[in-house]
C-alpha cells in the first residue's frame, strides 16, 4: 500500500507546466458561465456595432471593416480579465500553499492561467472573425498579412493577460481583482477603435493618439484591410513588449513577495 | 544518518506587535511521531508554516531534514504538508486532484493513476472519485486533503490538526496509517486539539502556550508532572461535579477524600483515576494564562 519513499524526486519544468496548463484549461471549460460570456460578448458587440451604431457612424455600410479590430481587442481585454479573477482565487485558496511546499516552480500555476487565457481568447477571436465575415467584413489581407495580424493579436492577448495576472496577484480577493480589472476595459473606447481620433476634442485626441491601444488597432486594421500603417507597427509591438515584460516582472515580484509572508 | 529530523533553536516570530513565538526550542528525532499541543492561537500553525517554508521566521535557527530552513528547495524535497485548512482544487474531481499532485511530484502518468486509485481506496473515496470536490462534505474534503499529502512519501510529514472534522472511523483509520508511515521511517509532526490523539499516537509531545514550550516529554512523563491520582466527585446521575488532583500517596488521597466527605452533597460518589492528557493540558495552559495575566 505504501509507495516507496522518494525524497529527491520531483517533476521536470516541462511536466509542471503541462500539468498547470491542463488544470487551468479544465477550470476554463468547467466555468460554464464565464465561457458562455466569453463567446456571447463578441457576438453581441459585433451585432451592436454593425447594426445599431454602424448606420449612424458610416451610412455607406463600411463600418464593419473599420470596427473589427476594435471588437477583437475589446473582447480580448474582457476575456483576459478573467485571468485576474482566476489568479486571485488561487492565491486566496489553500491550494497555493500545497503547491508552494512542493519542490516545483510554483509560479507555473500562474503560467497555466496565462496560457489557458490565451487559448480561450484565440477561440473568441476566431468567433469574432467568423461572425464578422458573415455580417459583411471583407478583409484584403493575404496570407502573410493574416499571419502578422494574428501574431500582433496574440502578443496583445499575452501582454494584457500577464497584466491581469499581476493584478490578480496584488488584489486581496477575486472580487477586488475583477473590480481593478474593470478599469482597463475602457481603454479601447478612448482609442481609434470605434471612431477615428480626429473626430475627438483636442485634449482627448492627445490621450487617444498616445495610448497603446491606438497603434495596435491601426496595425491590425492596416494588415487586414490595407489602411495606412505608418509607424504604428513599431509602436504596437513596442507597447506590447513593454507591457508584457513589465507585467511579468510585476507578477513574479508579487508572487515571491507573498511567499514568505502569508 | 542524522538523528534529529527537525530542530528549532530560539525560534521567534511576531505578527506586528504580537509575539506569537517567543523563543521555541524543540527537537524531533527521525522516524518518530511528534505531537504539538496548545490552546487556540498559541502558534501551532505558525510553527508548521515556518517548518514547511511558507512563513519566514524573525530569528532563531531551524533545520528540517538536515537543511537550514533558508535552503527552501532542499527542504521542500523532504517534506509533505496537510495544513489546517483544506488545500484541494474544488473545480477538479478527487481523482484529478490526486493525479495532478502525483504528476507534480514526479510520477509518470501511469504511476500517478495507480497511486490515485490506491489512495482513493485507502481514504474511502472510491465511490466519489469522479465527483467535483465542490460537492464534497467537510470530512470527505479533509480525507482528500490528507490523501494528497501522501501521494508520495517524503521523509517528513506535517499534519496540522489532521483529524479535525473526521468521524470516529476515519480517525482510527488515519491513526493506523500514520503509525504505519512512522514504522516505515517517516517522521510525523502533527498538531491536534484531541488530547487522546496525542496520547495514543505520539512518541513525544510538546505543549506550547504564550509563545514558549511549557512542557515536553512522553505522554506518561507529562501526566506524572501533575502528580498522582485524580479524585472525581459525581452526583447521583453520575455527572462529574468536581475533579480534584490528589497527589500520589495513599495518605494524600485519603486526606482529599476525608475533606470531601464533609463538603460533598448527600448521595454523591467518587472515582479515583490516573490523570488524563486533558488534566495535563488544562493545568499547563491555565497556569500559563494566569502568569501572563499578572
Ligand atoms: N498572517 C498573520 N498575520 C497576523 N497575525 C497572524 C497571522 N497568522 C497568525 N497570526 C496570529 O498568530 C497567532 C497564532 O496563530 P496560529 O494560527 O499559529 O495559532 P494556532 O495555535 O494554530 O491556533 P488554532 O488552534 O486556532 O489553529 C494568532 O494570534 C493569530 O492571530
Ligand atoms: Mg492552527
UniProtKB/TrEMBL annotation, chain A:
Entry keyword annotation includes Transport: yes
Membrane topology: Multi-pass membrane protein
TM region(s), chain numbering: 34-54, 66-88, 109-137, 143-165, 177-195, 233-253
UniProt subcellular location: Cell membrane; Membrane
A GO term for molecular function: ABC-type transporter activity
Domain of life: Bacteria
Pfam families assigned to the protein according to its UniProt record, in alphabetical order: ABC2_membrane
All copies of domain ABC transmembrane type-2, residue ranges: 33-258
One GO cellular component term noted in the UniProt record for this chain: ATP-binding cassette (ABC) transporter complex
PANTHER family in the record: NODULATION PROTEIN J (PTHR43229:SF2)
Name of the featured protein: Transport permease protein
UniProtKB/TrEMBL annotation, chain B:
Domain ABC transporter: 6-235
NCBIfam families given in the database record: drrA
InterPro entries assigned to the protein according to its UniProt record, in alphabetical order: AAA+_ATPase, ABC_transporter-like_ATP-bd, ABC_transporter-like_CS, ABC_transporter_ATP-binding, DrrA, P-loop_NTPase
Main location (coarse class): membrane
Localisation: Cell membrane
UniProt-listed Pfam families: ABC_tran (PF00005)
Family: Belongs to the ABC transporter superfamily. Drug exporter-1 (DrugE1) (TC 3.A.1.105) family.
GO CC, any one term: plasma membrane
Transport keyword on record: yes
Protein's recorded name: ATP-binding cassette domain-containing protein
SMART domains recorded: AAA
GO molecular function: ATP binding; ATP hydrolysis activity
Membrane topology (UniProt): Peripheral membrane protein
Alphabetic keyword roster: ATP-binding, Cell membrane, Membrane, Nucleotide-binding, Translocase, Transport
Domain of life: Bacteria
GO biological process: daunorubicin transport; doxorubicin transport
